[in-house]
């Protein structure tokens, strides 16, 4: 098989930005996933509507090293879960490549994917939908253990299940129950236990702790870090909770409308965000200190991935947009601090390096209903 | 003074099983006033969702209200026949569930689900209802709502589905909204929009809101008062600032200590040692006693009830007058022991 084309992004600046880790465990290049969301064919013909294509993921590149945690953040609908599903093979890519330790895994059939499945597991955003309601929890957790023959028999399997339940703060006796007998956060812990059951090397976590109270969340995050230290686990970690992402991630990628706009070591990203969108996003972190600060929702019209704005997709909401931004899509460039930023303004040095932006673009429709 | 909009009195939610009855919500009482937001936080599995489900009359059998009363605008609603409760649910109480997928029908377009809800509870024409549906989608921040309205739930992202559920609950301007984790699947900026929307409802329509969430940031910004639940009971309830800035119950203290923050570097997050007891092994006395650094003899014997401490009510023997500890002493004790337990925890994890 021929080598996947190396995009110019990868040539301009390698996505590896931090020397702390070894070789790339996962490598994503030029990854795209489009969805056809046209009206049914007949309606389209009758109403003379064009085909509608939604570009959920539109050409992204990144690498994750073994033992590293890569955080993925961005507004709802920007394509994070789609990236996660592409990596674990639940969606085939429209274009681009995904390699796991050098083996291409993009678009493999179920059967071809089988040997990878033990090593690659996913914790889903929607825990209930991903648990079989008719199975007892112990069987749900044991399923990957049995499927991959990871134990020598039923006693060992039962021991392993009990251990996993303990890990996530549930009682081994809870294994007898069915998913509906658990609270939302308990179900999320069940899906975490199941994902850990096959001793995966790479774990895709889509909002793994969003349904957990902060003390159980602390337990799970501590557990994830312990496992990582012990077994060099690699994580792709998606979350809306920026404090959690800050805590768990080594590097963070910020997505906007299907593209990565900034990738940087976690500390750098949160202390000196460069991309105007990243800076707005950080400004929306809830205020626990109760200073009475009104949070600033990101201003401007919420973008629509079916007809994304031309040029830099963020330009209608960006206070630094100029004519170039409206016509030419920015490519990621390396800036100091080991960050990659896709922004003309940063490249040209006309985006000042302050901590955070205060004024969003002109509030319209939606934003008005928020500010009143 | 008028009655609070919602009154919950000595509510018990239980599950009869072969081996006896499990009590998941154990004798809790609280009020929510008109235009007020009551935040509800607490350990996963503490009974927050069940409390919400009991209020909207949607406990799934075999779960049932074992005792207590629930009053909406002074009128009992926990013993109403199904049909009557269903009408109240549509018109007066809006529900936002934790699990967006279970509240949406995968076979109907988002717009159809909204228009049907609107038309069942109002006398709008189909065209009007559709306009209202699009307006609602705009309010909850769905981009290109005129185009999105005809799509199906699976074509929406997780956060977008959650916003559709919110739109459904707000469709007919209810008096009370029970919102169970309405913003967990949402990014922070959409969260801010939804919160602003909920607050606007409170202000303009006097809607009362019970807001269950794990996100302390959301609580800090939205709630007027907060109830902290642990093992089916209310540990502490009081004004939001008191609870967040001046936590009194040892459990609340531990909870506040485990919140990660941007800029705060720690290899490990603080965590409360141990885990919540199963419903079958709730200990005698205070349910938190196996994990509490201040547990003393009385805690293992008698169950503490929420009693007034400053502006809050706290269920902890440290604050009981009969216990002869003044409030200041108690607070000092909580703070001191807290440090000890952290040091111990560190020791444990270091070996
Ligand atoms: N199966 C599908 N068919 C059509 N469109 C889809 C499908 N799956 C996702 N999309 C669209 O792709 C875009 C990205 O969705 P995705 O679920 O990846 O977002 P996300 O970043 O995970 O958002 P959230 O934070 O809300 O979970 C959205 O506009 C969504 O509507
Ligand atoms: N159908 C059921 N049968 C038996 N026990 C149940 C059932 N439904 C819930 N429970 C138990 O009741 C307790 C309270 O559940 P509830 O869903 O109210 O928790 P919660 O506070 O909302 O938690 P979370 O924050 O995780 O959503 C849990 O311990 C759960 O296991
Ligand atoms: S490229 Fe232009 S519009 Fe886009 S973020 Fe940078 S300055 Fe703003
Ligand atoms: S009553 Fe006792 S065990 Fe319970 S929280 Fe207070 S001090 Fe701790
Ligand atoms: Mg998602
Ligand atoms: Mg719940």
Précis, in short:
With 372 residues, chain A is an alpha/beta fold. Chain A contains 14 helices and 12 strands.
Question: Could you characterize the architecture of this molecule?
Answer:
The complex is a heterodimer of chains A (372) and B (351). Chain A is built from 14 helices and twelve strands. In chain A, the strands form two sheets. In chain A, strands 6-7-8-3-9-10-12-11 form an eight-stranded mixed beta sheet, sandwiched between helices. In chain A, helix 5 packs parallel to helix 7. The N terminus and C terminus of chain A are likely disordered. Chain B folds into two domains: 225 residues, Rossmann fold, CATH 3.40.50; 92 residues, no CATH class. In chain B, a hairpin with a 2-residue loop joins strand 9 and strand 10. Chain B is globular, with a radius of gyration of 22 Å. With 351 residues, chain B is of the alpha/beta class. Chains A and B meet through helix 7, helix 8, helix 9, helix 11 and helix 14 of A and helix 3, helix 7, helix 8, helix 9 and helix 10 of B. The structure holds adenosine-5'-triphosphate (2 copies), iron/sulfur cluster (2 copies) and magnesium ion (2 copies).
Keywords:
heterodimer; A: 372 residues; alpha/beta; Rossmann fold; 12 strands; globular; disordered N terminus; disordered C terminus; B: 351 residues; 2 domains; eight-stranded mixed β-sheet; four-stranded antiparallel β-sheet; 12 helices; binds adenosine-5'-triphosphate; binds iron/sulfur cluster; binds magnesium ion
């Amino acid at each position: 098989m021929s080598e996947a084309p190396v995009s110019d992004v990868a040539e301009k600046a390698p996505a590896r930005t931090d020397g702390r880790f070894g070789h790339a465990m996962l490598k994503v290049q030029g990854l795209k996933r489009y969805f056809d969301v046209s009206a049914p064919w007949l309606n389209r013909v009758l109403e003379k509507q064009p085909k509608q294509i939604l570009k959920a993921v539109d050409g992204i590149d990144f690498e994750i090293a073994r033992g590293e945690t890569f955080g993925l953040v961005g507004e709802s609908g920007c394509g994070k879960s789609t990236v996660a599903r592409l990596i674990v093979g639940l969606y085939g890519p429209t274009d681009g490549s995904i390699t796991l330790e050098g083996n291409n895994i993009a678009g493999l059939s179920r059967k071809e994917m089988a040997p990878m499945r033990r090593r690659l597991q996913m914790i889903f955003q929607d825990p209930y939908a991903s648990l079989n309601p008719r199975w007892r929890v112990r069987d749900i957790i044991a399923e990957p253990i049995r499927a991959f023959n990871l134990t020598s028999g039923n006693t060992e399997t039962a021991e392993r299940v009990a251990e996993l339940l303990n890990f996530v703060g549930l009682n081994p006796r809870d294994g007898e129950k069915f998913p509906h007998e658990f609270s939302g956060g308990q179900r999320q812990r069940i899906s975490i236990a199941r994902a850990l059951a096959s001793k995966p090397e790479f774990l895709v976590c889509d909002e793994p702790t969003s349904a957990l109270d902060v003390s159980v969340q602390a337990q799970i995050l501590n557990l994830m870090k312990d496992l990582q230290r012990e077994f060099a686990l690699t994580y792709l970690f998606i979350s809306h909770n920026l404090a959690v992402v800050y805590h768990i991630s080594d590097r963070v990628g910020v997505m906007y409308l299907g593209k990565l706009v900034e990738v940087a070591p976690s500390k750098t990203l949160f202390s000196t965000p460069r991309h105007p969108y990243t800076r707005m996003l950080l400004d929306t972190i809830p205020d626990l200190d109760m200073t009475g600060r009104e949070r600033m929702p990101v201003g401007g019209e919420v973008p629509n991935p079916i007809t994304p704005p031309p040029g830099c997709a963020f330009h209608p909401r960006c206070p630094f947009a100029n004519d170039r931004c409206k016509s030419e899509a920015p490519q990621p460039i390396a800036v100091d601090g080991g960050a990659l930023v896709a922004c003309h303004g940063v490249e040209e040095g006309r985006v000042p390096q302050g901590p955070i932006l205060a004024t969003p673009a002109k509030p319209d429709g939606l934003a008005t209903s928020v500010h009143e | 003074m008028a009655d609070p909009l919602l009154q919950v009195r000595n509510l018990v939610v239980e599950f009869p099983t072969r081996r006896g009855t499990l009590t998941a919500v154990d004798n809790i009482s609280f009020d929510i006033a008109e235009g007020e937001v009551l935040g509800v936080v607490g350990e996963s599995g503490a009974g927050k969702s069940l409390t919400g489900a009991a209020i909207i009359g949607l406990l799934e059998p075999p779960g049932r209200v074992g005792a207590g009363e629930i009053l909406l605008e002074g009128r009992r609603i926990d013993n109403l026949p199904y049909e009557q409760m269903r009408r109240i649910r549509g018109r007066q109480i809006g529900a936002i569930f934790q699990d967006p997928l279970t509240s949406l029908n995968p076979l109907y377009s988002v717009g159809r689900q909204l228009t049907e809800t609107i038309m069942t509870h109002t006398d709008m024409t189909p065209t009007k209802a559709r306009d209202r549906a699009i307006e609602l989608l705009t309010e909850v921040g769905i981009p290109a709502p005129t185009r999105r309205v005809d799509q199906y739930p699976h074509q929406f992202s997780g956060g977008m589905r959650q916003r559709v559920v919110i739109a459904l609950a707000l469709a007919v301007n209810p008096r009370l909204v029970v919102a169970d984790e309405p913003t967990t699947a949402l990014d922070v900026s959409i969260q801010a929009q939804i919160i602003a929307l909920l607050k606007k409802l409170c202000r303009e329509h006097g809607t009362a809101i019970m807001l269950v969430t794990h996100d302390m940031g959301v609580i800090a910004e939205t709630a007027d008062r907060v109830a902290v639940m642990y093992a089916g009971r209310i540990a502490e309830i009081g004004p939001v600032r008191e609870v967040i800035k001046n936590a009194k119950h040892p459990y609340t203290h531990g909870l506040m200590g485990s919140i990660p923050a941007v800029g705060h570097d720690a290899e490990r997050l603080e965590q409360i040692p141990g885990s919540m007891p199963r419903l079958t092994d709730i200990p005698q006395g205070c349910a938190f006693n196996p994990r509490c650094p201040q547990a003393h003899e009385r805690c293992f014997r008698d169950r503490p009830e929420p009693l007034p401490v400053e502006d809050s009510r706290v269920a902890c023997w440290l604050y009981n007058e009969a216990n002869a500890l003044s409030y200041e002493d108690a607070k000092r004790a909580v703070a001191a022991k807290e440090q000890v337990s952290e040091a111990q925890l560190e020791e444990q994890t270091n070996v």
